[in-house]
Amino acid sequence: MSTLFGDELFERPRREVAPGAHWVPGWLTLRQQSWITARFREWAAGPVPIRGAVVNGHEMSVKTVCLGWHWRPYAYSREAVDVNGNRVLDFPDWMVRLGRRALAEVGEGAGVAAGEIYHPDTALVNYYDHDARMGMHQDKDESSLAPVVSLSIGDTCRFRFGNTENRGRPYEDIDLASGDLFVFGGPSRLAYHGIPKIYPGTAPDGCGLERGRINITMRVTGLPG
Ligand SMILES: O=C(O)CCC(=O)C(=O)O
Ligand SMILES: [Fe+2]
């Protein structure tokens, strides 16, 4: 069982993994994590229940529920046309504020200039059970190149962060733990990335999630309205 105390933050210092890609371990407190986990349970229940998106006829092992705009491969819409047709929940104001705080934390390197205001309007909220994986991909269904803000809660995962050219090397594997912030923007906004592995049983006590991993990625769709 890992904890967020002791030497952990010294062993996992914050750093810029690639130009515009910033990793801030232990950014969320356990209290914030367990509060967000409680919200996750509400979102997962509907109006659009959490589901594995179908990509090329295969259901993803990662289950996703969306806020603001509904994502399906490879488009955003207000209604979950591939699930039950219901409109997705609004993007919460507190999450806009959290996204802005995340960018303030990493500075201008992530691709938001001084004076510009970050306005995320969608979040993909993913749940990974122990066997779930996400293959290498680019986040490119958004027409805006504003940064992606990623938060992790629960079990640690291996996060593979690659280059903007292809799915292969060079890439770096890092372990994203409960409470970690990762922001990718600027020259890294279209970097390939994926989740090859979840480490079962590594969620810290108090994060609110006993099993698996929650990941939230906030984005700017660039869509009107
Ligand atoms: O789970 C993660 O950390 C990454 C999720 C992701 O890449 C995505 O939802 O596009
Ligand atoms: Fe992604």
Task: Give your account of this protein's structure.
- With 225 residues, the chain is α+β, with helices and mostly antiparallel strands.
- The protein has a single domain, classed as Alpha-ketoglutarate-dependent dioxygenase AlkB-like (Jelly Rolls, Sandwich), CATH 2.60.120.590.
- 15% of the residues lie in helices and 30% in strands.
- The chain contains three helices and 15 strands.
- Strands 1-2-13-10-15-8-5 form a seven-stranded antiparallel beta sheet, covered by helices on one side.
- A hairpin with a 2-residue loop joins strand 3 and strand 4 (58-59).
- The protein starts with 7 loop residues before the first helix and ends in a 6-residue tail after the last strand.
- It binds 2-oxoglutaric acid and fe (ii) ion (FE2).
- Residues 124, 126, 134, 139, 150, 159, 193, 195, 215, 217 line the site of 2-oxoglutaric acid.
- It comes from Kineosporia succinea.
Question: Would you spell out the secondary-structure blueprint of this structure?
Answer:
Blueprint lengths: L7 H4 L3 E4 L2 E4 L5 H15 L9 E2 L2 E2 L3 E5 L2 E3 L2 E3 L15 H14 L15 E7 L5 E4 L10 E7 L2 E5 L10 E5 L4 E4 L8 E6 L14 E7 L6
Antiparallel strand pairs: 1-2, 2-13, 3-4, 5-8, 6-7, 8-15, 9-14, 10-13, 10-15, 11-12, 11-14
Shape: globular
CATH architectural name: Sandwich
Over all CA atoms, what is the radius of gyration? 16 Å
CATH class: Mainly Beta
Number of DSSP strands?
15
The CATH superfamily turns out to be Alpha-ketoglutarate-dependent dioxygenase AlkB-like
Secondary structure category: alpha+beta
H/E element sequence: HEEHEEEEEHEEEEEEEE
Strand content: 25-35%
Any idea of the CATH topology? Jelly Rolls
Q: What does the main sheet amount to?
A: 7 strands, antiparallel
Bound small molecules, by name, code or SMILES, are: 2-oxoglutaric acid, fe (ii) ion
- In which range does the helix fraction lie? 10-25%
Unreliable runs, pLDDT <50, ≥5 residues? Answer: none
Number of helices: 3
Strand order of the largest sheet: 1-2-13-10-15-8-5
How many structural units, i.e. domains? 1
- Distance between termini? 44 Å
Mean pLDDT, rounded to whole units? 94
